Design the sequence.
């Protein structure tokens, strides 16, 4: 992680706090967020897009995709850095509202929002609801009518473009659950415009996640602006939301496109495609999650056991050193779920020992419970060593589980040499308290 530095003594520090001080105070495993780094990334994304799109006469709204990581503090950091917040469920909505975020600065997503979620969002006055289906157009219109408001909406479009990291696959109609096909857009927009309780803001498209190449976005923008020409015959289309998905570096093989360059290329594409289709340049919205919070986080673990496992290779047998830590797929499911790669370092000390090839394993009873598939650590790595795994700020805590009755670790934020808990960790007592076989009074709680 760009934010963690080695102090002169060889120990990893986050914002001036040594890793060992963090685990001594808050325990291990531990999620650590560098507040200044998260804020700087949020501000940099917003500024680069605002600058690039101002050059073509468009404004930009940046939504932080809360699914990547959401807590009240992080919501407030984003708000203070000028980002709106995208929520994808009633729970995320409740958190953002409780954190004091102005409802007008929230957007609601989801392919199957419940009637209750829609009702709460409309009643709260969320800035926009992203409509995902014909059924939902009617549901949101009804909710708005009941509450006596006009709800702003976007329509999510399945452009047929799905950016898979380095390459994109552009089929006529992609086989996935989100949005409505391009060919149905005009009909749905006509329906939205006919409903007095809805105000049409524009189209939305999200083509994927962990994307390095701009070409998938460019393809989607071309397809969307071609539809704008048709839609403009029936009324205004003030904006275009091109989603999130900007990639980050997890290991040294990930080559990240600087966000300024990404923004410029996207602005060029919007200007070019608008001109080609004879439409005005729309205002733009984006929804990054990972690129804002991912690199600002790291996870600290403590090494428990180490074993050398002999493995067969094409050149004969070799040794793979399995270093097991005190967490795993319950605090970071991404390697097991997506084959995601991470990098690790000894955090608590310096070492001049020769590097050895290691695999960092978790403590769960599954062989797929791996935190880092392959990286190098000094050969003197030993039980009790602290390890840092970089870039765990996005989709780790938010996807965490209690598998094997492990507790979710706390999340601490570090700023200016001081650390504080922003989400407390669970205790075993928390886990046992909700079991009605142990505690009959727990029944009905949370229902
Ligand atoms: N907007 C929409 C509609 C989305 O579905 C997503 C992510 C985002 C924005 C934010 O994407 P980001 O900028 O964070 O890539 N759990 C997976 C990623 C799932 C992304 C789901 N949607 C992972 O850990 O890689």
Sequence:
């Amino acid at each position: 992680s760009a934010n963690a530095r080695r102090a002169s003594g060889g120990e990893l520090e986050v914002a001036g706090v040594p890793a060992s001080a963090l685990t001594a105070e808050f325990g291990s495993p531990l999620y650590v967020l560098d507040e200044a780094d998260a804020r700087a990334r949020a501000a940099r994304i917003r500024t680069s897009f605002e600058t690039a799109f101002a050059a073509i006469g468009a404004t930009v709204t940046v939504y932080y995709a809360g699914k990547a990581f959401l807590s009240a503090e992080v919501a407030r950091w984003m708000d203070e850095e000028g980002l709106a917040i995208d929520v994808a469920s009633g729970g995320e909505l409740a958190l953002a509202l409780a954190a004091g975020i102005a409802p007008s600065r929230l957007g609601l997503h989801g392919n199957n929002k419940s009637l209750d979620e829609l009702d709460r969002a409309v009643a709260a006055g969320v800035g926009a609801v992203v409509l995902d289906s014909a059924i939902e157009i009617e549901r949101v219109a009804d909710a708005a009518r009941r509450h006596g408001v006009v709800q702003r909406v976007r329509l999510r479009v399945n452009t047929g473009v799905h950016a898979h990291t380095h390459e994109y696959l552009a089929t006529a109609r992609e086989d996935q659950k989100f949005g409505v096909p391009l060919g149905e857009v005009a009909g749905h927009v006509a329906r939205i415009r006919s409903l007095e309780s809805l105000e049409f803001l524009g189209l939305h498209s999200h083509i994927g996640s962990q994307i390095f190449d701009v070409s998938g976005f460019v393809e989607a923008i071309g397809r969307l602006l071609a539809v704008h020409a048709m839609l403009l015959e029936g009324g205004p289309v003030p904006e275009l939301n091109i989603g999130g998905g900007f990639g980050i570096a997890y290991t040294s093989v990930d080559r990240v496109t600087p966000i300024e360059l990404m923004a410029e290329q996207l602005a060029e594409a919007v200007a070019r495609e608008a001109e080609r289709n004879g439409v005005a340049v729309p205002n733009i919205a984006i929804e990054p999650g990972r690129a804002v919070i991912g690199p600002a986080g790291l996870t600290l673990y403590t090494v428990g056991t180490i074993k050398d496992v002999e493995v067969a290779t094409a050149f004969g047998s070799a040794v793979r050193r399995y270093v097991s830590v005190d967490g795993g797929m319950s605090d970071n499911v991404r390697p097991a779920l997506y084959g995601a790669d991470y990098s690790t370092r000894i955090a608590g000390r310096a070492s001049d020992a020769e590097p050895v090839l290691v695999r960092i394993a978790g403590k769960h009873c599954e062989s797929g419970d791996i935190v880092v598939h392959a990286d190098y650590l000094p050969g003197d790595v030993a039980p009790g060593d602290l390890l840092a795994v970089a870039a765990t700020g996005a989709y780790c805590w938010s996807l965490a589980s209690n598998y094997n009755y492990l507790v979710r670790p706390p999340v601490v934020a570090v700023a200016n040499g001081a650390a504080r808990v922003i989400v407390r960790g669970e205790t075993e007592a928390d886990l046992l308290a909700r079991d009605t076989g142990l505690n009959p009074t727990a029944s009905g709680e949370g229902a």
The mean pLDDT is 94. Residues 55-293 form a domain with the TIM Barrel fold (CATH 3.20.20.10). Residues 65, 67-68, 109, 206, 209-210, 243-246, 287-291, 334, 338, 394-395 surround LLP (CB under 6 Å). The first strand starts at residue 4 and ends at 6.
